[in-house]
Amino acid sequence: MAVPPCSRYKQNAQRVARNLAARKMQPVKECADWIEYVHATEGAQHLQLPSASMPFFAVYNLDVVALLLAVVLGLGLLLVGLVRCLCCRSRNAIDPLKKNK
Hints:
This protein is mainly α. It is 70% helix and 0% strand. The protein has 4 helices and no strands. The protein has helices at 8-21, 27-40, 56-59, 62-100. The longest helix is centred in the C-terminal third of the chain and has 39 residues, at 62-100. It is elongated and about 90 Å long.
């Protein structure tokens, strides 16, 4: 498949090539500098994500999901109980009339 000469694909490829060519240092040298920096700062703790020291359930917000699920289930059970109570009350109010007839 040939790419048309004035396509946006070609323009994007040229833009990316310019950005890569404008790097101040070679990727291997940059990687070596980062490795030296991490070694000099004893692990670069200030650059690590806070989630590295958080428990699993907090990282994935499982505690929040559990709370929301409990609230939704509680409200659902409350609603079902309320509907049952109202339905049973209306049946009990109608039944004495039927017995008297």
